[in-house]
Amino acid sequence: MRTCISHKEYPLAGTDWPLGNVGKLHCSRLVMRPLALVMRPHTPLYEEGQTLTLGPGKPVQQPITYITWKYNGNLVVNWISPDRVTYYGKFKGRTTLDVETLKLEIINLTLSDGGTFSLETDKGPVNSYGVGVIKNPPKPEAFFKIESDVEKRHFKCVVDTMDTAHLGPVTYRWKMDNGDWLSGTERLDLSVAVDPQEVSCKVITRLSESEASSPTENDCHKPAPLYEEGQTLTLRKCKTVQQPITIIRWKHNGNLMVNWISPDRVTYYGKFKGRTTLDAETLKLEIKDLTLSDGGTFSLETEKGPVNSYEVGVISIFQTPYNRLIQPESGRANELSTTASDMSSKSGRQSFIFNERCRRGAAGAAAAASSATPASSATRRVEISLTLCK
């Protein structure tokens, strides 16, 4: 027997039709047996808070003198006449029966509403439906972990264990810095070549996706080799440090920048005072408003010993090249200072100062060329011609 029905009006339980096909006409070959339809098992899913609507799924012999909907064998609603309708238990106050169509509507679904709903009339059983209810995916957290080898590090996307059992099968998506969302697993492995500054994740259920996690910093993100004056430098430990820690020291060229002994015993030193912040939990150091003199070696140590060190350079940046003549001091030659920008460097415009001294009384005019190789390998060699003073 070949039967065509509207899934929107009469969604048959036990079919393989996707939920997205609501409202379309479907035809299916059914094997008819007494009081039952034999189909492949399928349980439609709903999320907490959604509305469930169930219908008879097939024509029902009239007239009807009573209507009963049950949940796992227990009464949900019992109708005998328009003035004799009774709703039961947890469904009272959020369930409505349409007597003309026999449709049952339940609002504000809860996890405990998952189960089997069945419809009966005075003529006998009509239909039954398996329904599953899952949680809305909660906002996850991304955790960073360093393994024994610093080359092996990863992020893990985690949701509350109380929610996991009620989500069903899930997948994950990851976002590194401002990149696109990429499909993945619960764990995101990083390599030396993949070095994002921060990472976010999402949890995807069969019905929807979660809000993105708050960005989590990569503790092994390497600082750039060069910074401009005025920028902010962030340094991280990038190692598993044995706990507990009683002393944290960051140094610049071997000199103390900050010394931490306890939350109320933190001392910042010298030129870094007032623009440096230490996060004692992550050992992260942040320095604002970098100056040229901040270039050098930064090192971290605890009472357990050295942890890590970083070489950082700070440069001046100018918009365009220019020449300027500095008035001579007593007994000194004029100084000609020229600034050049490498407009084609991959790392952007970077300027360097070149100085040539010239003496008074020099005969004629000559051209002098000077060049320098910047600290950044991405910046090409810059050649500058300087004209000597007479």
Automatic annotation (TrEMBL):
Predominant place of localization: membrane
Subcellular location: Membrane
Positions in coiled-coil regions: none
Cellular component annotations (GO), alphabetically ordered: membrane
Superkingdom of the source species: Eukaryota
Keywords: Glycoprotein, Membrane, Signal
PANTHER family: CD48 ANTIGEN-LIKE, SIGNALING LYMPHOCYTIC ACTIVATION MOLECULE
UniProt name for this protein: Uncharacterized protein
Provenance organism: Merluccius polli
